[in-house]
Amino acid sequence: MTAPLPGVSYIVTVYNKARYVEGVVRALTAQEGGFEREYVLVDDGSTDGSAEIAARLVAEIPRARLIRQENRGPSVAVNRGLKETSMPFTHIVDGDDVVAPYGTRMLLEAALASGCGAVYGRNDWYRSGSEPHFPEPPAQVTVTPLNDTLYTVIRIGHAGGSTYIVDTALFKRAGGCDERVFVQDHSISQRMALVTKIGIVDHLVCMGPADEPGRIMKNPAQLQHDQSLSALLILRDHPELAHRIRRLVQKQVTGRAWKYAARHNGASVTSRFFWLFLAARLPLVKLGDEMLQSTLAAFRRSDNVRLMPTAVAESVAGASVGAPSALQSAARNRP
C-alpha cells in the first residue's frame, strides 16, 4: 500500500490581483492527490478589491484564512504567511499564477523520491482572457538534484516564481525570505541551498499571464537589483563561504551592473561600472564589500526600484555613487 503524501500549506501572496486571485485559489483547491492541505492568503495592501475577493474565498474553503497587511512587498508577505503554516511542505504561489492540476502532487513525489528539501519545476505563460493549457503529467517523475547547490543556484540565477515546494521546517530554519530584499525568489533558493539539496523537475508546473503589466517580471531594474542584492547579502551573512563563490558573485554583480548601465543609462567605458566589471575579472583581485554594494547604484537610478527599510539602513555610502541616496530612493518608492 502506498504511503499517503504529506500535507501542504499554500501561501498565496496577493497585491492588486483582482482579475486573477479567484482562479488561482480554485486551481489550488482542485489539486490532484489525497494530501492534507491548508490555504494562507496574504493580501499585501491591495487597493483593487483583491482582499474582498480573498475574504469571500476563505469563507467558502475549509482550512483557509486571510491575513491583511499594509503594503510591504512579497518577501514580507511570504514570511507573514509562513508563520501560519502547519503542514510538512509549503507551496508558495503568486496571486496571478495558475498551478497545473498535477503540480503540487508531482513536486511532492519528487521531493520524497529524491530527499530534496526544495524542488522546482518549470513555468510558462498564457494570455489574459484565455485558459491556461497544461500537458499531461509525466508517467514517472524524474528529479535532478543540483550539484554544488549554492554555487549553481547563484550561477544560473535560479528563482522559480510559483513552481516549487519547500520542506516547511527547513525553510523556517533557513530564515524564510530575506526581508532586506523586495522580491523573494532569489533569496529563497539561495537560503534553501545552504540547508538542503535542491531538485529540478523538467515539467510544467504553473502558468502566469504574460500580458499583466503589474507583474514584477515587467520591471528589469527591480529584478536585477534584487538578484544582485540577494547574493551580496548571502556573502555578508556567511563570510565562511568558499572563495570561488565570492568570486562568482563578484563577477556577476559587476557584469550585471555594467550591462544594465550601458543599455538603460547610456554608460560608456569611462564609467565606474565598466572599470569594476574589468577589475572583477582580473586574477587574484578581490573587490571589497563597499565596491560590490556600489554596483546596485546602476539599478537605483530607476524610479521603479523598491528598497526595503532594512536594506536602506544597511546601505553603504558607495551604493549611492552617481545615483540618488538609498534613503531618497526608498522614500520615492513607497506605495
Report on this structure.
This protein has helices at 21-29, 50-60, 74-82, 103-114, 149-156, 168-173, 185-193, 220-237, 243-265, 272-279, 289-294, 297-300, 309-314, 326-332; strands at residues 8-14, 37-44, 64-69, 89-94, 98-99, 118-126, 143-145, 164-167, 198-209. The termini are far apart. It is 41% helix and 17% strand. α7 (185-193) packs parallel to α8 and α9 packs antiparallel against α10. The relative contact order is 0.11. The protein is of the alpha/beta class. α1 links the parallel β1 and β2 (37-44). Strands 1, 2, 3, 4, 5, 6, 7, 8 and 9 form a 9-stranded mixed β-sheet that branches. It has 2 domains: 8-216, Spore Coat Polysaccharide Biosynthesis Protein SpsA, Chain A; 219-332, no CATH class. It is globular.
